[in-house]
Design brief:
Helices cover 63% and strands 0% of the residues. It is mainly alpha-helical. The chain has four domains: 40 residues, no CATH class; 97 residues, Orthogonal Bundle (Annexin V, domain 1), CATH 1.10.220.30; 38 residues; 86 residues, Flagellar motor switch protein FliG, alpha-alpha superhelical domain (Annexin V, domain 1, Orthogonal Bundle). The longest helix has 20 residues.
Amino acid sequence: MSTALSTATTSPAAPTLATAAPRPALSGRQKAAIVVHLLLSGGTRLSLEQLPDHLQAGLIQQMATLDSIDPNTLREVVGEFVGSMETSSLKLPGALEGTLDLLEGTISTDTAARVRSQAGLARFADPWERISGMDTQMLLEVLNRESIEVGAVLLSKLKVSKAAELLGLTPGERARRITYAISLTGDISPAVVDRIGQSIAEQMDVQPERAFSQGPVERVGAILNFSPAVTREDVLDGLEQTDSSFATQVRRAIFTFANIPARIDPRDVPKIVRDVDADQLNRALAGATGGDALATEFILSNMSQRMAGQLREDMEALGEVAEKDAEAAMTAVVIVIRELEASGDIYIVAEEEE
């Protein structure tokens, strides 16, 4: 840079009052700090994270020590910077990944994810961590859409409880084929598992926005779960004739009072009984008939003898319970079970295919 940044006299004579102290020549790092500060002040977005750490730290220190810069000095620094650019060439990314990295923050994340997915580019450091956090319905769609081999890898990478739930929602023949394929994954390389995970994660990342937080199976199941038993069975019978596969999935999504013996761990019974209103529990146990009566015996046999004896006395004192009241009470018990499952306090076993 020209020594005109400041005018200094070299005469050995004593300085006069009009003579200004010479300003030290700016170093390259100081000039860089001035240019960066100027660009950032003007709203320019700079990506400096790719610089080595020591250069980033040095830039911060230089910017922190900058004093006011007079207009002449600023013009000279900017002029030198522009002049250096006139003799430089521009190196473009030359690859899709580099271009996407360069445009990060400028284009939408959905567009970037879609382009990456179409090009088969990896994006996630650990795709399986992202996949394991997806809801069951999304994972079920992937499991049904992908090949048997990919399904085997997917289930192998998930927590046992979630894998069991997905397997329980998968049609029997496909579930058996996926289970067998898991036995053949022993020699699969980590690189292949990672590529499968990247592909699944990319697909999930570009899922269109959904109007409903739950899939159709969960929504229909939730509605029928709290519908009167007669209505529920009538609707399910109709679904069987229209779409037997969908009907099967809905049946597995439904959890009723009668399902308690088959799908509740006996050790969880005390937790459930503790959270259910005492009057509702008495009415549910006393009013249960037919298949529901098996749930009553299951509950009573998996608590302390003292408490079971007390409940039996209360049930006998209650006498006959109207069907409508019994059904409402059993629904209240189911609601408590669903709440305990949602909070992670208990786990509802996936229904086995008949």
